[in-house]
Amino acid sequence: MRSEHSTAVVSVSLDDAHRFSKPAAPRILLLEGLGAEGDAHAGATVQHRYHVKKDPTAPNLTQVHLIPSELFDELAHDGYTVRPGELGENVTTRGIDLTGLPLGTRLHLGADAVVELTGLRNPCSLINGYQGGLMKQLIETDAAGRITRKAGVMSVVASAGAVQPGDIIRIELPEGEQVPLDVV
After folding, report:
1. Stated pTM of the model
2. Across the chain, what does the average pLDDT equal?
3. Which of 143, 157, 144, 153 is nearest to 183 (CA)?
């Protein structure tokens, strides 16, 4: 029997258009090297509009966006109401410090799907249009001037498979030096 604090998928979301939030889905299909089937951000090359403007031929390192549901709990404490998919993520997790994992970590989602972490999501100003002041909650600067980004992590699909709420997540750390995630 698994504990209440096991690492699991809470929700999955996708959208076929470039909108801020993604509606929840009963399951998503991750396609190797592409992303979530039917999602506007899926593709071998960059799909985020900001990155396309810079270099449309660059590899897509932001195929699948993951956010911990614990962030929503923290935001609720500060007066914000945010639900899975509303910050544009494809996979909402529970029980994992996603932003604390190193570059190249592989997350096994359910039976077959595997994503490899490529970096931190750098939240954009559209977040304040969604809920005023939310950007400041997602990018903090501590007393020493260090910036902490809390808007989740980005990844590429290493192995295809279906992902749905309730799927267990297994963490596979990369071998060798553990490099912290940076903005991608």
Report:
1. 0.93
2. 93
3. 153
33 or 127, which is more confident?
Answer: 33
70: which 2 tokens?
């614990």
Contact between residue 30 and residue 112 where contact means Cβ atoms under 8 Å apart: no
Residue 139: in which H helix or E strand, if any? strand 139-141
Q: What is the arithmetic mean of pLDDT over 96-113?
A: 97
Please name each of the domains of the chain with its CATH number. 8-172 (2.40.33.20)
* Largest pairwise CA distance in the chain: 49
- For the purposes of burial, counting CB atoms within 10 Å of the CB of 61, is it exposed (0-12), middle (13-18) or buried (19 or more)? middle
At 128 the pLDDT is 85
Rounded-to-integer distance, Cα 5 and Cα 69, Å: 12
d(C-alpha 121, C-alpha 153), whole Å: 5
Q: What is the pLDDT, as a whole number, of residue 2?
A: 38
148 strand-pairing partners:
140
Q: Residue 49 has what pLDDT?
A: 77
Amino acid at site 169:
I
Q: Two tokens at 1? A: 């029997």
